[in-house]
Specification:
Layout lengths: L12 E4 L13 E4 L4 E4 L5 H15 L5 H19 L4 E8 L2 E9 L3 E7 L8 H13 L7 E6 L4 H6 L3 E2 L11 E6 L1
Antiparallel strand pairs: 1-2, 3-4, 4-5, 5-6, 7-9, 8-9
Helix pairs in contact: 1-2
């Protein structure tokens, strides 16, 4: 398990503050500890939740929801089947928030970033960036190409630029777009 933070708690947990000199009673305040997100390996048992997340993210971002979404969902399914057959040749992570999978990333052969999805309700909160940072850390010395490469959808180009990937060629005409990027390790 690759853990960036402490695991989330199902209920709010409290701790006593060490000192409370400004309180009339002199008793310490109870301070709530926030549930923290967790990054962990995807398990086969997670696949139904991963598939639902992927569908939600794709339907929220594609222009032609029917035609493009179907193509992209089928393409992602092929990657999930590949991962089930080759788990030792990949990094497949989930980002949990309050026990729910809100982001996933799959890197095949430690260089091919096959997919990265974040629930629409959790986008622009650092989930994707955190998953990318963890993938870079885990693939750093395992990538046979000394880089991570991907073909981004046209919707995600600004994200990959923001996290340090470099566009390496022109995009291809494919549902959702297909823009090549790489990150040197």
């Amino acid at each position: 398990m690759s853990q960036l933070n402490r695991p989330p708690n199902q209920s709010v947990k409290y701790t006593l503050a060490k000192q409370a000199p400004d309180r009339p009673s002199g008793r310490p305040l109870l301070q709530a500890l926030e549930a923290r997100p967790l990054i962990d390996d995807v398990a086969v048992a997670d696949l139904s939740e991963v598939r639902a997340l992927v569908k939600s993210a794709i339907h929220a971002s594609v222009a032609d929801a029917d035609r493009e979404a179907e193509f992209l969902i089928n393409d992602i399914e092929k990657s999930l089947v590949w991962w089930q057959d080759h788990p030792e040749q990949s990094v497949h992570l989930k980002y949990l928030d309050a026990g729910k999978i809100v982001g996933v990333v799959l890197v095949k052969d430690f260089w091919n970033l096959a997919n990265l999805f974040v629930l629409p309700s959790h986008q622009r909160r650092g989930v994707g960036r955190t998953l990318i940072e963890e993938v870079i850390r885990l693939c750093g010395d395992r990538s046979p190409r000394a880089k991570i490469q991907l073909n981004s959808s046209s919707y995600a180009v600004p994200f990959y630029e923001a996290v340090g990937f470099t566009q390496t060629g022109l995009g291809r005409d494919r549902p959702g777009g297909c823009v090549p990027f790489e990150y040197g390790l």
